[in-house]
Amino acid sequence: MSQLPSPDTPLYHHPLPALESWLRQLGAVQERSDPCLWDLHRPEWSARIELEVEELKVSWHADGRHCERHFPYGLSRADTEAAILAGP
Fold it and tell me: Which long-range contacts (CB under 8 A, 24 or more apart) does 3-6 make?
């Protein structure tokens, strides 16, 4: 498992193995067909996380609703994690 930088570190300062380790720690599962796609499930919602070139894209699904947000890699891991886990 890759060592994670401080939670206050912007995502762009995380090597890819550290980002993948972080997503696994959140409970996300990487898609076999596309390593940039991750699925995260909670009792109230599910989310698709996409590691894009310039940002992290999160699409939540809950009760038939869809919500999508884009998080620049300049945000800290802690802020991004809080936003993802807050749900739609």
Answer: 4/77, 5/77
Q: Identify whether the C-beta of residue 49 lies closer than 8 Å to the C-beta of residue 23.
A: yes
Give the global pTM.
0.91
Residues 6+ away with beta carbon under 8 Å from 25: none
| Residue reference for tokens 């802690």 | 78
What is the average pLDDT score of the chain?
94
Residue 60 lies inside a defined structural domain of this protein: yes
* Counted domains in the chain: 1
Distance CA 13, CA 23 (A): 15
Q: What is the CA radius of gyration of the chain?
A: 12
Residue ranges making up the domain that contains 34: 11-86
